[in-house]
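Researcher: Next entry in the queue.
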Amino acid sequence: DGNFDYRRTFEHPVGLFVGLKRERRKAGNLHRNMKERLEQEESSTKALITDISHQLKTPLQLSEYAMNDGG
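Model: Structure for this entry, 71 residues:
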């Protein structure tokens, strides 16, 4: 009535741990890469905001100078 020809093969525990270790290393590498990309993105964003702020302040400072000094 049952299929007794089926045999389950079990992976050796050492092989299992090697696979888990490999996957953990991959996950760690992905996490590190993501962290580095986020840090680069944050740095780029800060630089962009600083540049935009400077670009906006410069004309305002020039017009303020012209108004105050009668230029």
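Model: The two ends are 104 Å apart (CA to CA).
Researcher: Noted, moving on.
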